[in-house]
Amino acid sequence: MTIEPRLLEALSRVQDPELRRPITELGMVDSATLSNGTAKVRVLLTIAGCPMRSTIEADVDAALRAVAEVQHVELTLGVMSPEQRAELRESLVSRSIPFSDPASLTRVISIASGKGGVGKSSLTANLACAMATDGLRVGLIDADVHGFSIPGLLGIPHASPTRVDEMILPPVAHGVKVISIGMFVPDNKPVIWRGPMLHRALEQFLTDVHFGDLDVLLLDLPPGTGDIAISVSQLLPGSELVVITTPQAAAAQVAERAGSIAVSTGQKVIGVIENMSWLQLPDGSTMEVFGSGGGMELAHRLELVLGTEVPLLGQVALDPMLRAGGDKGIPLVISHPEAPAALQITAIARALTHRPRGLAGRPLGVSPR
Ligand SMILES: Nc1ncnc2c1ncn2[C@@H]1O[C@H](COP(=O)(O)OP(=O)(O)OP(=O)(O)O)[C@@H](O)[C@H]1O
């Protein structure tokens, strides 16, 4: 195997679109020679039917043509042998959950709600896209076993992960690496597993799915205080919780239960988001369709229960375009980033990711009830 150093340098700038690592590090460059202005390169794909074949081909071609001495490119594509794939897998797959390592720099944030329909999944999808738009490396796990809506909200309702032997590569939508329990059950049927089955499924996701280095991992939890919330706290002890509510007093009371689960799981509740806070009318006035004050009330209640500071991270207006964006699979923060609701979500995303080391989630010195 010969690899010409100038070509190697150029090829090190080509990333495998799924593994997000330079192809030179993944053992994909089989040979690369340069003679009389012709670069002859052989690149090995991880699997025969690699869906990213043409992207890799184009990226390699462009990288080689950027080398001053190269006038012609002769690129051939091959496929890794089972031994080469095993070697690659060994280098990538860790048998433990990378995000539970105390040294992990990934911020893990679970999004919870007291009941369904408050916009938890819509906000999670938009928050993830807002973070990715800000240049962060974002993963999103749809753990809402009662209704896997995240792939649809992100425009990839039928996407399935790519498998390289036992390694699972998540599909990417709007710059977010997405995995959903729905991608592993036949016909996207709701899952009726409970307790240990769910725990095992989540554990497998977190271990086998290769997310690569992430800045943030968001989890869309099922509404209420179910088994998944407990599993998340056990499998990802460093994970933090955000609770979504609507402005209605009754909704805030139900949401308090979802937040106060943190007392027993030991998770930090880092804030509350109030969704559907008001509707902007054509004359410029606002209508509080679902009442007001629920977000603030929930934040106060959780502070009392948990004995830690729980800020209201923001309020998001009702916006028919947000609903339409969800139906089309293009989140509002992407399609209409200037819309008030999109700006509110982006501000919350920034508050979550650029949090100064404040009191949020830390004991206030008040005894929990
Ligand atoms: N701010 C908003 N403005 C307008 N529509 C919204 C807003 N937030 C959510 N919706 C709409 O409300 C409905 C419920 O939202 P979503 O499915 O995200 O809720 P959820 O809390 O995740 O529910 P579940 O947990 O039952 O899946 C959807 O049709 C969604 O488009």
Automatic annotation (TrEMBL):
Specify whether Nucleotide-binding is a keyword of the entry.
Answer: yes
Residues recorded as binding ATP, renumbered to this chain, are: 114-121
* Pfam families found in the cross-reference section: FeS_assembly_P, ParA
Q: Which SUPFAM superfamilies is this protein grouped with? A: Fe-S cluster assembly (FSCA) domain-like (SSF117916), P-loop containing nucleoside triphosphate hydrolases (SSF52540)
Keyword set includes Mitochondrion = no
Going by the UniProt record, its keywords in alphabetical order are: ATP-binding, Hydrolase, Iron, Iron-sulfur, Metal-binding, Nucleotide-binding
Give any GO molecular function from the UniProt entry: ATP binding
The protein's matches in Gene3D superfamilies, at most eight in alphabetical order, are given as:
Fe-S cluster assembly (FSCA) (3.30.300.130), P-loop containing nucleotide triphosphate hydrolases (3.40.50.300)
Write down the InterPro entries for this protein, in alphabetical order. Answer: FSCA_dom_sf, MIP18-like, Mrp/NBP35_ATP-bd, NUBPL-like, P-loop_NTPase, YlxH/NBP35
Q: What does this protein do?
A: Binds and transfers iron-sulfur (Fe-S) clusters to target apoproteins. Can hydrolyze ATP.
Q: Which family is this protein grouped under?
A: Belongs to the Mrp/NBP35 ATP-binding proteins family.
The name of this protein is: Iron-sulfur cluster carrier protein
> What species does this protein belong to?
Paeniglutamicibacter terrestris
